[in-house]
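INFO  loader      accepted 1 record
INFO  loader      residues=91
INFO  predictor   begin
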Amino acid sequence: MGDEMPLRDEALQYSSDEAWECKLCLKHINSLIWQCRRGHVMCGDCHVLCNGQCATCNIQLDGIRNLALEQVRDRSLRKREGKKKEGGGKP
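INFO  predictor   done
INFO  writer      dumping tokens
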């Protein structure tokens, strides 16, 4: 049973890493996370390049930030950095 936890943590890390990946340029979003009303996320650069329309579903962009996803990303990164400092995480 003790062997299952690292696999679970790795799976959660992988899925959460994908959550803050811009679906347009496929880069990790390190700054503000923007989204359309249907929840499609994008980075700031792609948000500007979309000229007011979601590139995924073509609805009008209303300047909505995904604050919750930004907080999850930031907490995950801080946790990962803490593990690296303790020597318990992978480099």
